[in-house]
## 1
Amino acid sequence: MTFADILAILPQQLVFGITLGTAYGLIAIGYTMVYGVLFMINFAHGDVFMIGAYVGWALLGMLFASHVVPMHPMIVLPLLLVGAMVMTGAIGLLLERLAYRPLYQRGATRLGPLISAVGASIFLQNAVMLIAGAREKVYMTYSVFPRTWRFAVAGINVSVLVIVIASIALLMMLGLHWLVQRTWLGRSIRAVAEDREMAAVMGIDVWRVVALTFCIGSALGGAAGVLIGFYYTQINFYMGYAAGLKAFTAAVLGGIGNVRGAMLGGLILGIVESLAVTFINPAFKDVIAFVVLILVLMFRPGGILGEALPDWKRV
Amino acid sequence: MPLLQIENLMAYYGPIRALNDISLTIEDGEIVCLLGGNASGKSTTMKTILGIVRPASGSVRFGGERIDRLPTQAIVMRGISLVPEARRLFGRMTVRENLALGAYARRHAPAAEADADYDRIFSLFPRVKERLDQYAGTLSGGEQQMVAIGRALMARPRLLLMDEPSMGLAPVFVDQVFDIIRAINQQGTTILVVEQNAAVALSIAHRGYVLRNGRVVHTDTAAALLASDEIRRAYLGDEE
Amino acid sequence: MRKIAAIAAVLAAAWVLAVPVCAQDTIKIAAGAPLTGPLAKQGQEVANAVKLAVEEWNAKGGVLGKKIAVLEADDQGNPQVGVAAAEKVAADPAVMGSVWGITSVTCIPASEVLDRSNIVLITPGCTNPKVTDRGLKNVDRVCARDDFQAPAGAVWLIQDLKKKKIAVFDDGTTGPRGGADEFEKKAKALGATVLRYVIRAGDKDFRPILGTIPKDADAIYASIWAPDAALIVKQLPDVGLTVPVMGPDGQFEPVDYIQASGGAAEGNYVSFLVPDVKKVPAAQAFAKAFEAKYGPVSSYGPLAYEATNILLTAVQKVGKPDREAIRDAVRATKGYQGALGVSVTFNAKGDVDTQNIYIYQVKGPDFIQVKSLNLGS
Ligand SMILES: Nc1ncnc2c1ncn2[C@@H]1O[C@H](COP(=O)(O)OP(=O)(O)O)[C@@H](O)[C@H]1O
Ligand SMILES: [Mg+2]
């Protein structure tokens, strides 16, 4: 490939990389927030994301079949997002309540909740497989975003779908940023993340904050599920594994525990991945993502925006 | 009725007994001083009052109500604040946010009351006002102690627990801190203070308790404790 | 003690007697295919067609005076699983032959296991040249080879549709990669430019790689499976490409390709090894019987049915349950007139001597046959 060829396709690849990256970022936030308050990796988060995609798929099918509303993104998307977020938010609460809190309140080691998370992940995958079947599910992306809704700027193909996905993901991240920085709940989350005992001494109900953190992170993951569902146009019950791994990588890349880091890490990963596909070999795209992660961690052990972790916070 | 009444309190860290049959009362309006050597159970007493450490037996009453089974946040809501050992500010948050978190228990109160609270803290600690938008982790030790006290006051506590407020401070600050404690007390807040610096602490306190190995070994008025030979030898550094 | 010994003796006698009795009772043929997993639908159609043929034989009294039973072997489209399934088949003394496989990766190792027990394997859908090129005496194939199917695709795109610059995709696995290689060889011989791309099966976002296709490419040959192909045709417009996509038999899937593409596959081409059964008068009986029992014919059913009949005809000709002789009799099949209206003769390698490939086009929810290409082998 000549340099001119590379330049010619680079902008197009960036469009795709950014789109995927914002969605990765949205999932990564769930990992990073939970890690922030509990210092544990919620390995079931990828599957919560998958469930979001399935809820969106089911709602889309219902809307499509019932003809109660026109298939316009302005109507369909909010309904799907709200539905998926409510459902995954509730699952997040249940996960915290049933899979993790009992362990923590009995003074679990680091390993216990981790194993519980893996178990929850297997449970969620199989539950979805049993309920919805093992077959790939098709998102009717183009009945909501018609194929003709696209335009070319300077040779780059941009579809409305891509713009909508990236802007919703960005808006949600901005919203979360506002919540974390400006509201009582956000302050409580940060306080719990920094010093759980002192947070309680401030009068904060620590377990309530932990539960809400799970709920918010899961709801954002669920929203990402809907967006990715539209983008991939096909979903399956094991999609949470790969996406979860990517998002977790993004969270570590940006600095685990750091919300802005998760967004940044997601973007970097999305872009790196699409460039790797273009210029190296699609078979290597995951490898490349991990190489980037290792390189970053070599120079910044705490991730790009993270601080080097004190011993007591290490996994 | 005493504001705080502790009876026969036992507390453990795993197998380690930290409090052994502690009983203690604090009357409304008092400054009570908790003395004792290292590891004698002073901090644990405070943590048990706040429900951070759960007592194995015994009771804690605040304003007549048993609070020893309540979760920490519920105890705090009832009007007990803590200035913790080593200050423990939220270092990654600004001074303003630290003070705001101090007011968490009163977050639904009218804004005017919060403003009044800020003004009270700025008048006690003019320096804090200059540092409002700085990260708490970047302040000097003395400044951090001011913020820690300010943070505790933001909740308008009836009882303020202070764990070694002069620890690690330059001597000029130590006197200042005790002046402030007296001022706060005179504004109507009851105070339980743990101090290594027994002479200074007793000079402002009304009464004192002496702990050793998790037991109360002495209790008397501050003046009597200051006068006691035994106390002088053990805690006031008088070797004679 | 003596009582136990007596019981043991009786049991042993019963066992010794029972085995030959069972072996004399039935003849088994194995139906090997991915019966579970992502390719289960195509795999089930193979197994169902085998069962249908066997039922018809049984209705006429079976073969060699015995009933025929079908032994299902699920290879999950996975070589390791396939080998284990083949070993189980080989271990059953009643098995006299097999109809196996739609994925070359599993068919190849499975056939090697079966070869050690001289069990013949007729494949209705494994198209990689290596399946018959290894010189195994037990492997025959009723479908066309990739090195004919893919070239037929090249002939169609280049000679019939006059395409000049073709982007060729495979997923790096044996079957699809072989097809892409053969396509490239033929397309170059016909004077077209070929650009090769490799995707990873199961990925969901192919836009980045589609974005690297030059804008002057005028066709895509996608040597990949239906679910991946559906994603590619759906995502193509996102990179500003509107070119016809052609693929091999793996995309002959109304649900996983046409339906999954949500209309994006309209007008695309798929080559297939089976003529449209509706258009073959001889196949009507089969089509009806199959539909009544298992639903519409959508992929390898007719060829699996044909393979089963060829196998059982050979068994009948041999006249005794002799695996080796049956194996050789299958290879010796000449001018067999089956249900598909073409005569089947195996060449020395076990391939059919006339490679018939049918070009279909996606129209609405269906594949419409637009051309039949016959390439001599
Ligand atoms: N978190 C803890 N875990 C285990 N033991 C502790 C913990 N905190 C304090 N202790 C033990 O409890 C006893 C009392 O400690 P503490 O109340 O901190 O004493 P003081 O504040 O008087 O120095 C000591 O023996 C100390 O080692
Ligand atoms: Mg202490």
Note: Chain B has a mean pLDDT of 91.
## 2
Amino acid sequence: MAKKSITGADALVKCLENHGVEYIWGLSGGAALPIFDALVDSKIKLILVRHEQGASHMADGYARATGRPGVVLVTSGPGATNTLTGIMTAHMDSVPMIVITGQQIRPMLGKDAFQEADIFDISMPIVKHSYLVKDTRDIARVVREAFHIASTGRPGPVLIDVPKDVSSADFTGDLYPDMDLPGYHPERATVDQPTVMAIAEALSKSRQPVLLAGHGALIAGAQDVLRALAEKIKAPVTTTLLGKGVFPENHPLSLGMLGMHGTAYANKAMVECDLIMSIGSRYDDRIIGKAALFGRNAVRIHIDIDSAEFGRMIKCHHYCHGDARAVLTELIKHVGELNTKDWLEHLNGYKKKHPLSYKTRGGLKMQHILDVLNDMTGGDAIITTDVGQHQMWAAQFCKTIKPNTWLTSGGAGTMGYGFPAAIGAQFGNPDKEVWAIVGDGGFQMTLCELATAAINKLPVKVLVLNNRYLGMVRQWQELFFDKRESGVDLVGNPDFAKLAEAYPGAKGLTLKRAADIRKVLQRARDYKAGPCVINCLVEKADNVFPMIPAGAALEDMLIEAPKPHVKLAKPTGST
Amino acid sequence: MTTILTETDTHTLSVYVANKPGVLARIAQVFARRGYNIDSLTVSPSVDGRYSRMTITAKGSVEGLDQILRQVSKLVDVLRCTDHSLDEAVVREMALIKFTTKAGERTEALQICEHFGCKTVDLTEDSMIVQITGGSEKLEACIDMLGKFGIVELVRTGKVLMARGRQET
Ligand SMILES: Cc1cc2nc3c(=O)[nH]c(=O)nc-3n(C[C@H](O)[C@H](O)[C@H](O)COP(=O)(O)OP(=O)(O)OC[C@H]3O[C@@H](n4cnc5c(N)ncnc54)[C@H](O)[C@@H]3O)c2cc1C
Ligand SMILES: Cc1ncc(C[n+]2csc(CCOP(=O)(O)OP(=O)(O)O)c2C)c(N)n1
Ligand SMILES: [Mg+2]
């Protein structure tokens, strides 16, 4: 019997199945028709979104929560360009993602044909790698390479642009071809023994060490060995915004998050320590402040799988190229308990003196709601956030205990990320409670995905911390621009609870008084039939502290609001 | 004294890449993002046709360049990226120089050309084109000398480079 012929699109979908893809988030159009057609007969579930940006953040949320690459499928031109924000967001935070874009037929390329966008070139600076498939026979190899590249080494997004005539032609190639990646060797980042020994030696001399754990430690799955190491040598651990969850924030050795809006004690520890060991963090400008002054009296160590990060932001004494878990597994063998008793006591003094706090009197506070939510979920829920003040307070008050339960856009700071990311996380973890903590500004950028959540009966809870402001920007204008507000007033907001109710299967709740927090949050937790939006009318003009003004040294942290007469200089350097 | 490259030193890099679409654009983007101007660039197939060799010269600080090397090296289609500025590598360049000669000047011009080992590749009543190959200093010197006749056009290939002995380029 003659083998039934399959198209390029069939082959593409078959390869995705072979890679264990469960979901594809997307929205169709002319150039992608053959691929959408092939999905009709596939066991992969196609999730129709309402905007392609949403698809890309859903794939991102799925990937961060499960560790598996998320897959996006869109059409050419505007369909493809609508994913760019999501691709950039994933690229900045090293998230594995495959974005498949339909494309004009090959003879039309370069002619400004209908819906032709040169997405291969447009996306080049924000992908880990990309392909324009020019031959149907290449499809299987390209897909295989794309998954390999997206999910190994330092993960990241890979784009595959597929002209329509390539996807609709007969596929005659091999479905299981070899990869052809002579320049890509993540496996070569093996642990260098002498470097590990030098680090062990440096640690042994330290009396005031700090372990700085970042997103790379999570990607490596280094949580167990990190905890074992911290407990063995008795060193405190701080995490970056993206490292939250790699070390339990309720652990006595945890200092919480450091950086611009980190805890006072974490930042003070960074100033006073004699050794900083970064494990999978890239020493981002939001954690080092003024680079020249950062950790200037400390031995600085940088463990990273991407050697291009070495020396990029700050100079270190030891660079260790390798996977965080592999490096720590080796390192722990060569270190013993350090004499850090005084250091830990000293830091505990800071914890007592400068705890994260807020006033419960007066208006309804974001911090208060988040504190209660944290108490109710006990670190078991997956929490995603949008970008702004609510994000920073969530980072401070939602204690992350387990890996991959805290998803936020760090490097890109993409407003509109939180809600679709929660949808993706819920798809990947149907049995988990998922909360999206969003601002009234950012939520409006992607709230059309309420339809996606409702139709798929996802019990995602959307906590809208509604201050009727682009709050974070208003805060900067208040502190650094003489309170001259410019373009931050969100007058005209809809009633988010009513808006939710307009979607069949979605629920809307309103929270106005502090006394009702627990009750309203519980009602949301009890609603399992679909998404639930809680419109929280919080105080309009509160500010997030502690704060290190952008570009300032860590020692210049404002632990609380400055006195009214104090005039702060405009932040320089970084943003 | 040890050699210290200064801000304006020219670096000569050799990049060994897989012949895949977009590889040149990706490399150029790394330079552009970090504010480096590429002075010259040559691309040619290597012995194994699946790979190409690029020789890039660029000016800038050593530190910035180190960052660029790392970022270029990590591109999926790049096998190797090496800075040969401080090596004893063989560096060659070719130039075509078109200049005018007035009556009576030609003999002197030919003498200069002979001194630099130039080949005359075109000759008219009042102009000539010569071809010169060699290290960049030699080319500069020759161009300087021929300058007095009035150079009309100058085309240089940009450097190509190869490491000596057993060292890999
Ligand atoms: C409003 C706002 C405020 C912010 N404030 C803060 C703040 O106060 N504090 C803060 O920390 N951040 C803050 N950020 C986030 C900040 O901008 C950065 O995104 C964040 O600090 C980066 O964290 P990271 O280095 O851990 O993660 P990433 O940027 O994801 O970097 C991960 C690093 O780990 C490496 N890596 C990957 N895999 C491995 C592996 N297997 N083994 C070893 N290494 C690996 C990567 O190469 C990379 O260098 C803020 C963002 C916003 C939007
Ligand atoms: C897409 C996008 N546009 C602009 C910004 C700049 N920005 C950062 S925070 C912020 C305000 C966010 O307002 P809101 O969502 O209401 O959250 P809030 O700060 O009030 O909690 C803005 C505009 C951004 N991060 N992302
Ligand atoms: Mg707001």
Note: Residues 10-87 of chain B form a domain with the Alpha-Beta Plaits fold (CATH 3.30.70.260).
